[in-house]
């Protein structure tokens, strides 16, 4: 099917809110010749990422559909490639645990259908028409004709402040999501349609070239769902891998690294290999997970166990507030 630039519906940052997504689709005036452009972040944080992908795959059978990658899909692909990597932890703590749970079976295994995996593998980084440039997060201050996937992928998927404050003239209107606002944000250079549905706000679709907006409000509480570990008494599956963790102790930052982790807790090793314990059972801690070059993942927790192992003193931390909790209200 050929794409129709005169009847485009744009969606972004569905984040597993399958019910609101389906309600929004029923609200918009879709035609057989309509083009649907999705700007990424289909998954994570909301409770039904798998169903969101199912709905989009069904739409691809009926309409012209363009699917772009978001930063959450990039993290998911890193997780699938190597679940022990630092980016895998960034995925889990950025709401990815809900996506893992949506693809989990009764044995606690992650099972992704072939057509879903193909969907994630074939996502594009941008799409453009004569008047509009569609992307997940934004673009750098360069002419659009000079944007290269190999050079600018991080900008296209992750950029925030430099793009949002830029006065650069790209010659086309940039249509994006990624940075949530309570209402659609329209400037001379760009349109931001991420209205933070998963943050108790609403999911919005933009109709071009008319610039009409359609929205559906979230009318329920989003609860984090995790993949249970059926081989033990743990509430959630643990992942192994060395991930940097930084904890603030008496105003100073101390570095640790994970031995294993879950969305509920951390088992970490003292990197400095101090001879004495620098944390104590019952201590309340505040820290950051990973050193990803895009987002810092904060957490709060409580030390529940200390083990003196041959390669350093290790601490078990039960999270009292994980990164998902800090993401509940992105605006003031």
Structure explained in plain terms:
This protein folds into 2 domains: 210 residues, Metallo-dependent phosphatases (Purple Acid Phosphatase, chain A, domain 2, 4-Layer Sandwich), CATH 3.60.21.10; 88 residues, Thrombin, subunit H. The mean pLDDT is 91. The protein is of the alpha+beta class. The longest helix is centred in the first third of the chain and has 17 residues.
- The name of the CATH architecture of the largest domain is 4-Layer Sandwich
CATH superfamily of the largest domain: Metallo-dependent phosphatases
**Low-pLDDT regions:** none
What does the overall shape look like? Answer: globular
Q: What integer is the average pLDDT?
A: 91
Number of helices: 8
Distance between the termini: 44 Å
Helical content stands at 10-25%
Number of E-type strands: 17
Q: Helix/strand/pairing class, anyone? A: alpha+beta
- Oligomeric state of the chains? single chain
The CATH C-level class name of the largest domain: Alpha Beta
Number of domains: 2
Largest beta sheet: what is the strand line-up? 12-13-14-17-16-15
Biggest sheet character: 6 strands, antiparallel, barrel
Order of helices and strands: EHEHEHHHEEHHEEEEEEEEEEEEH
């Amino acid at each position: 099917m050929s794409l129709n630039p005169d009847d485009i519906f744009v969606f972004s940052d569905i984040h597993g809110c399958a019910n609101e997504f389906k309600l929004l689709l029923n609200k918009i005036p879709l035609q057989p010749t309509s083009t649907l452009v999705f700007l990424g972040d289909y998954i994570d944080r909301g409770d039904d990422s798998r169903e969101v992908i199912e709905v989009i795959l069904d739409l691809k059978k009926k309409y012209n559909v363009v699917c772009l990658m978001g930063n959450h899909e990039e993290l998911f692909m890193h997780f699938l490639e190597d679940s022990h990597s630092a980016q895998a932890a960034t995925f889990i703590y950025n709401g990815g645990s809900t996506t893992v749970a949506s693809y989990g079976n009764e044995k606690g295994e992650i099972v992704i259908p072939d057509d879903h995996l193909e969907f994630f593998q074939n996502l594009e980084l941008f799409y453009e028409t004569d008047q509009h440039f569609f992307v997940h997060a934004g673009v750098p201050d360069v002419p659009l004709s000079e944007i290269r996937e190999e050079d600018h992928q991080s900008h296209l998927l992750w950029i925030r402040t430099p793009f949002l404050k830029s006065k650069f003239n790209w010659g086309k209107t940039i249509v994006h999501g990624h940075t949530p606002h309570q209402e659609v944000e329209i400037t001379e250079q760009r349109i931001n349609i991420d209205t933070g549905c998963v943050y108790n706000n609403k999911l919005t679709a933009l109709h071009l070239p008319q610039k009409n907006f359609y929205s559906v409000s979230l009318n329920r509480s989003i609860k984090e769902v995790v993949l249970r570990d059926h081989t033990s008494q743990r509430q959630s599956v643990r992942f192994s891998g060395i991930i940097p963790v930084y904890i603030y102790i008496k105003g100073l930052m101390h570095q640790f690294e994970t031995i294993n982790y879950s969305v509920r807790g951390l088992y970490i090793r003292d990197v400095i290999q101090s001879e004495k314990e620098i944390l104590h059972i019952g201590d309340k801690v505040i820290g950051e997970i990973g050193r990803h070059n895009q987002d810092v993942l904060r957490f709060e927790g409580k030390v529940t166990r200390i083990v003196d192992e041959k390669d350093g003193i290790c601490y078990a931390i039960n999270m009292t507030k994980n990164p998902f909790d800090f993401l509940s209200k992105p605006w003031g």
